Sequence to fold (424 residues):
Amino acid sequence: MNAAAPEKMAAMISFDIPPEVLNQLEPYAHLARTIMRPQARHYDEQEHERPYPFIHAIWPLERARHQQLQAHAAQEFTDDEPDLDVLFSILLAELLSWGDAGQFLARPGGRLGGTAVAAAGTSAQKVHFLERFAHSDAPVWGAMAITEPDAGSDNSAMRTTAVLDPDTNEWVLNGQKIFITSGALSLVESDGICIVWATVEPNAGRQGIKSFVVEAHTPGVSVSPGMDKLGIRASDTVIINFDNARIPYDHVLGDLEVQTQNTTRGFAGAMKTFDASRPAVAASAVGIARAALELTKEALAAAGIELDYTRPRHLQTAVERDLLEMEAQYKTAWLLTLKATAAIMHGRTNRLDASMCKVRAGTAVVFVTQKAVELLGPFGYTRAALVEKLMRDAKINDLYEGTRQINLLIVARALLGYSRRELK
Ligand SMILES: Cc1cc2nc3c(=O)[nH]c(=O)nc-3n(C[C@H](O)[C@H](O)[C@H](O)COP(=O)(O)OP(=O)(O)OC[C@H]3O[C@@H](n4cnc5c(N)ncnc54)[C@H](O)[C@@H]3O)c2cc1C
Fold:
């Protein structure tokens, strides 16, 4: 770190949210309060029913936001001119997950698919593939498909293949992806896109893996009925099968010359998606944790129990100590998430912080929501209270976008200076 860096960092550390970002959040806060939260229980009970009141209410806002994102697509961000869209999207993930994490995941827009195109696509691909999210009258979804029956945490075991047919200059995809969020919404129920990771050379490990843009209604692509889940039950989660699905040559994300060679640069481009998506998952976890904390405090206040922050720790009751621990975990998770976000906003790499905040927030939300159920007693365990749902919704944040264990490995490697081969 050079001598000027600490000063620069001090100037960057500000927790004031710019007024324009706060204003932009306001209509979404209204939706979270008036549509998402009141409907949360219904869509939890009626898994596989689409939350259309929320989808139709949010689509005009999301479409306008994608128009804004397209206008800024070519801009470079620096310390002096940070990318406020990034801050906005993290605050939005927190806010909408406070409303209801299941409906948040069913939200139309580019989602993970859009993040992948933005992270790894060429300028022309960004314009071409993301335009539908900015201009379609009907809601459109994006998704990303990596996980396979025998390749989850270990991507190098991936078996979905993409073979170039020299006669037609098309990629031919074969294989199966499982647990794909918004898979049906993106590929069948709208004119969306799904970014599919596949290997052009199964024996080349990560070097062979590239990401491909599959458009909705592509022949040879089929989607299973939705899966039944523990939590986030309003979210669409499906298996996708590829049976000789043909996609155009230029639908491989990134520079074509790089993508058609065996090099990890294609894989690295795809991995950049996680640098942006892991802080968003962490923010979603923090939103659920905040909801659980608020509901717990309200219930305890109604019973005459309020936190007194000035009382020495040894004089606090067990309940007060639990509440303080919940708050501490929630706040540390949020601060780490904002730190990872600040790096992206200023155009810097954040791989360590992205994994760190994901681990911290995943652990915190599981702890906070379990404690909420515990502190509310038998009532907390019933469906009359929302906290049992929050506890079920919480756990996914510890699983997808790299499990807690995998993100801990990334953190450990970065801190200890080990390579992937040395620490696995
Ligand atoms: C609701 C839901 C939505 C999802 N959405 C998507 C999506 O949109 N797109 C997508 O591609 N995938 C999605 N996934 C899949 C998710 O990302 C994977 O489940 C996750 O990456 C783990 O992979 P796996 O299930 O194969 O588990 P495995 O890799 O088999 O892991 C099983 C367990 O072993 C642990 N483990 C594995 N390797 C190590 C190691 N080296 N050291 C220590 N522990 C290890 C893991 O942490 C985990 O606890 C979703 C999953 C769910 C449940």
